[in-house]
Design brief:
The protein is mainly α and about 230 residues long. Helix content is about 70%, strand content about 0%. The chain has a single domain (about 5-215), classed as Four Helix Bundle (Hemerythrin (Met), subunit A) (Up-down Bundle).
């Protein structure tokens, strides 16, 4: 993998982080808001850890994630677009909520619980990403890379552990930011992730050799014993 791809990948992350920071602090009208800084710290830690893991263990995945989404399903493009807009809206709404006090105050302990949920969610997502050599931003079979079923690590317990981690983050972030509006958006994002999980699972069972047998061994998609 060449340096240009690495630079583009890191630049993409920096721009995403800057966009989130501008959205949340601009809407809040001030910068002395610890939950927003906590959210940014989570993002910075996530970028740093995943970059280190990918550069060390799976550099080809960086090229896969930074490349234009060729071969993406129409439904996947639609879900991802809506999801990204919803995530941006969450930070804007949370900032406005903080500025105008729409949701009132949350207990500090509740916000800490939201923070912990976010950290645990992203930890699970990082574990899944570091385990799955074919972890992609879009749903597609990477035949050119010899795509095979990931069965180790968190994939031993559920078929889509990364989505489990994402849902934990989506639900925890609204609580951390002490905004009922952000919690509502997190709920919408959760529904979108569940829909994407269902459609992706159908795609993998239809197109990825060995996945049907894997689905028989690991029965649950997101939560052991439930679904």
């Amino acid at each position: 993998m060449n340096k240009k791809v690495t630079v583009l990948y890191i630049l993409d992350q920096i721009l995403g982080l800057a966009g989130m920071a501008v959205a949340i602090f601009w809407s809040a009208g001030r910068m002395d808001w610890w939950p927003a800084w906590a959210a940014i710290a989570i993002w910075v830690a996530w970028f740093a850890i995943t970059d280190f893991l990918l550069l060390r263990k799976n550099p080809d995945l960086i090229a896969e994630r930074i490349s234009p989404p060729k071969g993406a399903k129409t439904w996947d493009r639609a879900i991802l677009s809506i999801l990204r807009l919803a995530q941006l809206a969450r930070y804007i709404l949370a900032g406005l909520d903080f500025r105008y006090g729409w949701s009132g105050s949350f207990l500090f302990s509740i916000q800490i619980a939201g923070l912990v949920t976010c950290v645990l969610g992203y930890s699970l997502l990082t574990w899944a990403m570091s385990t799955n050599l074919y972890f992609s931003q879009i749903v597609r079979i990477q035949s050119e890379r010899g795509h095979s079923v990931a069965m180790n690590g968190p994939y031993h317990f559920v078929r889509h552990p990364a989505y489990t981690g994402m849902i934990m983050f989506e639900l925890g972030m609204g609580i951390l930011l002490a905004s009922w509006w952000a919690i509502l958006v997190g709920g919408i994002c959760t529904i979108l992730i569940i829909v994407r999980t269902t459609l992706e699972d159908h795609t993998l069972q239809s197109e990825l050799p060995g996945y049907v047998d894997y689905a028989r061994q690991v029965r649950f998609r997101l939560l052991p014993g439930i679904w």
